[in-house]
Amino acid sequence: MQDLTVRGGPGARVNTELEVKRSRFLTRLVRVESEDAARAVIDAARREHWDARHHTSAFVIGVASPGQVRRSNDDGEPSGTAGMPMLDALTGRGFVDVVAVVTRYFGGVLLGAGGLVRAYSGAVLAAVDRAEAERLVVRRERRQLFELPLPHADAGRVESELRRRGVLVVGIGYGQQAVLRLASTDATAELDGIVAGVTAGEGRMRPAGHEWVDVEPG
Q1: Whole-prediction pTM
Q2: What single-letter DSSP state applies at residue 191?
Q3: What is the pLDDT of residues 23-45, one digit of tens each?
Q4: What is the pLDDT of residues 170-205, one digit of tens each?
Q5: Helix (H) or strand (E) run with residue 199 in it
Q6: Regarding the domain delimited by 140-215, which CATH topology (the fold level of the hierarchy) does it fall under?
Q7: Across-strand partners of 98?
Q8: Radius of gyration from C-alpha coordinates of the chain
Q9: DSSP label at 95?
């Protein structure tokens, strides 16, 4: 399954609202990089909607691996009816490095255990669906990094040409030279050929380790 997350880096957010039998379920789906950041998002929801009855939550930190962190909280709803269904909604759609907080304003009608499970999972899935519909989803992928030093006068043109040819440019630094940071799969020979063509053979890449980067979902 793909490791998907919200486009735009830490703090990027998608909001949705769902009404079920007069109860309002307000969802915020926020990209985070740590458990502390996830808990800060939950605290912010509590402060913003201080008059709501419940602020249930679920988050997934890290790509699918034994070290992945998964947490959920029912926040006063019957055990197993909110946090875990929300977590299942996130993991079932392959989302990582995100926290979902669902704030519920009670509408006076009891939903029952099954109704709560459907409402909370549906609230998270509505946020995921909106993110996908609005092209706000990227895939997290570990790639090899390279640095490409260039004269300042050539950097803009080369960057534009590399992007046009499908090369992932993850950053650019400026010093005595401009330095493009490129992320590649293991097919480095192909990247070498592209760089040589764009720079008329003058560009020389140097390895710069590995990094988790955002790529378009396949």
Answers
A1: 0.85
A2: H
A3: 999 999 999 999 999 999 999 99
A4: 889 998 899 999 988 766 778 888 999 999 888 899
A5: none
A6: Alpha-Beta Plaits (3.30.70)
A7: 31, 60
A8: 22
A9: B
